[in-house]
């Protein structure tokens, strides 16, 4: 039996928004990139253009901050960007648009609970488990693309949603989902899918929170 080529998946977080800079919760609010965020998107697009020429598809959240970042990469690679609302950030319910301080004052202790329990949702919002399920459905559909083996697919989305998807793909217990957090703006996750000895597809982590840190050197950090 001929070996099946690996599928590589990159998960890129969008550039900075003014909400990020002021520690305000965005969730599914449709915010745009700040001036710094646009510069970050251009830098990461240039990096991708130098290092990632085997990307065959780009799929982005339909929220503007992710779509703007994805479009910057698409322009460099000469690829159209597909939009999928299932790649949106966690819906944060009553917390959306509010600062960390405001939430902590009105809902004392709840933000800490949310950070450490993937089955807990903000008032009126989604759990990490629910986010992981809708994100995973996109990847499962992409697996039907016969051009993926031997190439790379890029998903451009949001920090919390990418963390949830990473945990799901790596089959970590739900109690450990929150170990993946703190993804910086325009940082990315690298995953590779290969057939396991039992014939099932297994996902393997290559990098988490990798980022471009030099404008002209082409260097990157994989902290």
TrEMBL record:
Entry keyword Isomerase: yes
CDD domains: HP_PGM_like
GO MF annotation list: phosphoglycerate mutase activity
Keyword Isomerase among UniProt keywords: yes
Record keywords, A-Z: Isomerase
Pfam families given in the database record: His_Phos_1 (PF00300)
EC number: 5.4.2.12
InterPro entries xref list: His_Pase_superF_clade-1, His_PPase_superfam, PG/BPGM_mutase_AS, PGM_Phosphatase
Top EC category: isomerase
Name of protein: Phosphoglycerate mutase
């Amino acid at each position: 039996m001929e070996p099946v080529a690996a599928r590589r998946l990159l998960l890129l977080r969008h550039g900075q928004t003014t909400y990020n800079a002021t520690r305000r919760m965005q969730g599914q609010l449709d915010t745009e990139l700040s001036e710094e965020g646009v510069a970050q998107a251009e830098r990461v697009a240039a990096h991708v253009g130098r290092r990632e020429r085997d990307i065959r598809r780009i799929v982005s959240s339909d929220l503007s901050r992710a779509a703007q970042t994805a479009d910057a990469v698409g322009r460099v690679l000469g690829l159209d960007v597909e939009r999928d609302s299932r790649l949106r950030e966690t819906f944060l319910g009553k917390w959306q648009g509010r600062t960390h301080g405001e939430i902590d004052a009105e809902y004392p202790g709840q933000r800490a609970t949310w950070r450490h329990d993937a089955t807990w949702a903000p008032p009126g919002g989604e759990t990490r488990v629910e986010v992981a399920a809708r994100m995973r459905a996109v990847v499962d559909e992409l697996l039907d693309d016969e051009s993926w083996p031997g190439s790379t697919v890029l998903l451009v989305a949001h920090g919390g949603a990418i963390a949830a998807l990473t945990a799901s793909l790596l089959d970590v217990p739900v109690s450990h989902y929150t170990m993946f957090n703190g993804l910086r703006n325009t940082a990315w996750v690298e995953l590779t899918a290969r057939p396991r000895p039992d014939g099932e597809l297994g996902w393997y982590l290559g990098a988490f929170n990798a980022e471009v840190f030099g404008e002209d050197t082409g260097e990157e950090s994989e902290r």
